[in-house]
């Protein structure tokens, strides 16, 4: 290692020699930085899963504009929208078609005592054009009463239990007092608030949820004419529809606003955001403690160099060298432990926790910066010291 670092730095790696002189302290320092990395990775992983599950629901649809209740901040909250807004919107130039969207959670109690909450979407049976290709391909089969498309990755269901479902081999189950027939499957998975997804026609939806009326969907989805910018149509709709009862956004803007609301205003997103900050602070404190102790232990040697005429930049170089070594050596075990933890948490919860290269690179850069800041703080005492006072 000394030879390699000598080649990298083009000089004797004084920082490495000082760190490796006390192996136990070095291993403890690497473990500390690795633990801080693990904290940050876990918080980022859960935050990323929250983002993925939030946007995954929007990816199931193919719409240009969404009309929602004025108090709706996400796809699933807020009041209902009067169906007459659909007919008003269809009269606006640039709007090609529209459909109401019904959303509710369905509790699926199974005979073995287990249960799952399915986020249920209901659309008109002829509204396949408003759905992503994954859903649209099987949606036409839902014209038959009490048929559904079920999420085969539903949390709580045994792996493989929903495989092989088709219109010819339906899967029958009971929910809300009705017998439903799953004639197709989706592969979506659970989120933070639901265990899976269910698609059905609006008529089956209204039979499942007797307290819902056909005149009050959750949202209205719109498609615009070819070649028309949805932003232009949104402005036209805002001039027609009453702003006190509904709000109009492009579908992409609605997804972005939902994601921002989940991460900055909901407690879940805020907690994990603070978790990332705490992980960074833990890493800074650990590295600062290590480097400041190292500077104190070698103060006489540094004083000798200073008396010989070496400038402060020389000492900064040594401390930054130590900070970079600790950052890199601590990052690797932190990354490996996080990959294993992601796999375990994903298997246990069904949440999409994956280690992406962009996240790993961001944490590595953040670790290097945090260690550099710690090193700069640790050298403050050395910068103002007089060599004569150090002996």
Automatic annotation (TrEMBL):
InterPro entries: ABC-4/HrtB_transporter (IPR051125), ABC3_permease_C (IPR003838), DevC (IPR005891). It is a multi-pass membrane protein. The keyword tRNA-binding does not apply. Pfam families: FtsX. Residues 275-386 form the ABC3 transporter permease C-terminal domain. The chain crosses the membrane at residues 26-50, 270-291, 326-348, 360-378. The keyword Transmembrane applies. Its main location: membrane. Keywords: Cell membrane, Membrane, Transmembrane, Transmembrane helix, Transport. It is found in: Cell membrane. This is ABC transporter permease DevC. It comes from Thalassococcus arenae.
